[in-house]
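User: Okay, second chain of the day. Same drill as before: sequence in, structure tokens out.
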Amino acid sequence: MLTQAEDRQAKIVELLRERNFLDLRTLIERFDVSVATIRRDLGDLEGAGLLRRTHGGAVSVNQVAQDKTNAARSVLNQEEKAAIAAVVSGMIVDGDTVILDAGTTALEVARKLAGRKNLTVISNGLDIVAELTREEGRSIYSVGGEYTGTNRSFRGPLAEQFIRQFNVDKLILNAASIDVDRGLVCTVEPVNASIARAMMEVSRRVIVVADHSKFTKSSMSVVAKIEDVGVIVTDRGAKSIIDAAPEKLRKKFVMAD
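Assistant: Same drill. Structure tokens below.
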């Protein structure tokens, strides 16, 4: 027979499967226990590898060990990605030189830029380049290098060398995960992190695009600290996690409606 603590902890794990993030206030009210009790429960569950504590609550453990293909990711959170892209496209002005990092959210940004002629765009994403070349009139540079079929992109030392030849106004950077608790923007593989950092080096402003699902995942390769990017554009699904973040990080986020 389960003890009260074991029963409560089992229910917390069940709730996390449904919601991905739970704040302390919600848990205290639901189980009618003290802050100390809930903190102890979360500590026990984190020790067992069943969740990860954050500022103000906990998220489910969901380690991203391998990128999904573009085809698989393109059908996930489509409305949220389109809303994020609408906000980001408004941050790009005529005359800008922009890097679009390979990924499905950046691809949505490319679609929002349809009809915008007075732009120079650089991308390592094959799908993004194909989208941008549907119409004439833009200056487009395609990054070469080692091709990976997972997200149909080019990476590696040759790609990084090519990117470092540019002086860029804005970078639209994808992320595999956003770790608000540790203040990190992460990706799956070191080779992906390396090309992302090369893009950041040549860019005046870094705009990270990440739908809410990226806030409840973990990935091993650190790209940058959140405080070192310009802004992270996400959707309302990440609001509860962002609200629980330290104030110095909250100002880095913009939420699309």
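The two ends are 46 Å apart (CA to CA).

User: Thanks, on to the next one.
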